[in-house]
Amino acid sequence: MALYLPAPTRRTFLTSAAAAAASMVLPVSGLRTARAASVKEFRLRTAPGKARLAPEPYGETSVWSYNGTVPGPEIRVRHGDRLRVIVENALDEETTVHWHGVRTPNAMDGVPHLTQVPVAPGETFTYEFDAVDAGTFWYHPHQSSTVQVGRGLYGPLIIEEAEPVRVDRDVTWVLDDWRLTKSAVISDDFGNRHDMMHNGRVGNTVTINGRVPEDFSVRGGERIRLRLINAANARIFALDFIDHEPVVIAIDGQPVTPHTSKDGLVVLGPAMRVDLILDMTGAPGNQVAIIDRFYERLEYRLVNLAYAAEPLRDGTQDWPIELPANPLAEPDLGAAVRHEVIFNGGMMGQMVMAEMGGSMGDASRGMMGSMMNMMTGGGMWFVNGKAATGHVMEPFLMLKRGQTHVIAMTNATAWHHPIHLHGHSFRVISRDGQPTAHREWQDTVLMAPREKVEIAFVADNPGDWMFHCHILEHQAAGMMGVFRVPEKEERT
Ligand code: C2O
Ligand code: CU
User: Fold this and answer.
1) Are 270 and 234 in contact (CB under 8 A)?
2) Under DSSP, is residue 310 helix (H, G, I), strand (E, B) or coil?
């Protein structure tokens, strides 16, 4: 049985063409597409509800959701469209919506207190922005995200290319990981010290599109574009497609030179997306498992690909799979300004700092002491020696607008961290001093323990932008900061 078809409720989701006629002039600065966009209107209602995450004999789970479904409805528009999303908050606490990976104007970025007043219970807020890049994105609250995302608030946002690559099926899998009790109730131990100091709230129940997956039906010879979105608070996935050879065509929504991964594993840190071209090369009637191998000795079968008795066609297609580039400003490395960012803290943090001390350069001087002082102050994770306590803070980096910036990041911790920047996509240019093969555009880059990663981008979107670890427990325990891109354009 094919399980991952959109739920019927998604069809009732409002797309108003009439809204396009009522074009308003909005005081929105930043990135705009040139042509007059058609406005697509959607409504999201944030509320407590029920969802069947696990099959019988488990009961339904109390969740928080958008429009009553987990994940929330798939918002799907065309590249260059303008989105208007009216968010109604029926929770009894404040919320916001962040459009992860979308280069929105700052005021639409959904960061509580920093870019907007949070949406109070019973109130609505209207987000409006242009779909400047085509690709696979997602939305989630930025308010108390450990709890709100952890209870089920997230949904996919798909921006279709004007001319998408040809496939037989375009499938979205939103992956999540829940910590459930034996009676399928969400464990309420959010924000406990152990999760925060270690690898975050890793759960015990993995879902695809809000369900513990049963078999996924496929047909021999079929070509699927599989859009993977990791919406988990903390779980990292490393998917092994066994005999299949998935080709990566986009990372974090941004096109990349089509390639297969070196070790055959498709890795997604929290918040990351990967678009794959998956040719169904298995034999009729076969069952082929997809295995998640990220955590050593904790491999498990995510889902089975179940081949129908009848193939769709013999052999596979050689339709082109390269996606057209998005309109991102190309970094000029020769003229780049360089900034050092060191992450530290967490369990065993002092040990790693001591061990890496010599290789971290100037920026680390004095940081060890400051970290040790702050360890007693409540923060557990630090960005350049500072642990954030909320979203409102002085920017720790000022980025000249219109200028290329290289952020040289050092993960001086014993843990992985998916580091996310708002408002921009960046090229990942090196890892541990080695140039990356594809200079991939990303908005969230997974750093291994002790790894050094350099990213580069043009600061072309003015505003105060969050820069944080997307393991939500790390973020809540201090691992975030703010970059400021001033309104005034300057060049050096
Ligand atoms: Cu997906 Cu700052 O967020
Ligand atoms: Cu982290």
Assistant:
1) yes
2) coil
Residue 477: beta bridge partners? none
Distance in Å, CA 470 to ligand 1 centroid: 6
CA dist 48 and 151 (Å) reads 9
Which has the closest alpha carbon to 308: 115, 169, 103?
A: 169
pLDDT mean across residues, the chain: 90
User: What pLDDT is attached to residue 259?
Assistant: 98
Task: Name the residue with the closest Cα to ligand 1, atom 1.
Answer: 100
Please confirm whether the linkage preceding 57 is cis (ω < 30° from 0). Answer: yes
Each residue of 115-125: b (16+ CB within 10 Å) or e?
bbebbeeeeeb
pTM, full prediction:
0.91
**Shortest CA distance to 178 belongs to which of 286, 63, 34?**
63
Amino acid at 355: E
- DSSP assigned state of 119: B
Q: Which helix (H) or strand (E) holds 369?
A: helix 367-375
Q: Is it true that the peptide bond before 71 is cis, omega within 30 degrees of 0?
A: yes
* Residues 6 or more apart whose Cβ sits within 8 Å of residue 484: 395, 397, 398, 399, 463, 464, 465
CB 439 within 8 A of CB 373: no
Instruction: Reduce the DSSP state of residue 330 to 3 states and report it.
Output: coil
Q: Which residues line ligand 1 (CB under 6 A)?
A: 98, 100, 140, 142, 271, 420, 422, 466, 468, 470
254/252 Cα distance (integer angstroms): 6
* In contact, 121 and 93? CB cutoff 8 Å: yes
Please write the tens of the pLDDT for every residue from 29-84.
444 444 556 899 999 999 999 999 998 899 999 999 999 999 999 999 999 999 99
Name, in order, each residue with C-beta under 8 angstroms of 33's C-beta and a sequence gap of 6 or more. Answer: 80, 130, 131, 132
* SS3 assignment, position 292: strand
pLDDT over 70, % of the chain: 88
Helices (H), 292-363: 349-356
What mean pLDDT comes out for the span 366-390? 72
In angstroms, the Cα distances linking 131 to 79, 80, 88 are 6, 5, 22
| Each residue's pLDDT tens digit, 312-350 | 999 888 999 999 999 999 999 999 999 999 999 999 888
- Ligand number nearest to the C-alpha of 154: 1
Tell me the mean pLDDT in the region 353-376.
64
Give the tokens for residue 297: 């000795």
Q: 70 C-alpha to center of ligand 2: Å?
A: 25
Tokens of 165: 């690559």
Residue whose Cα lies nearest atom 3 of ligand 1: it is: 100
Q: How far apart are CA 359 and CA 350, in angstroms?
A: 15
3-state secondary structure of 248: strand
d(CA 345, CA 351): 10
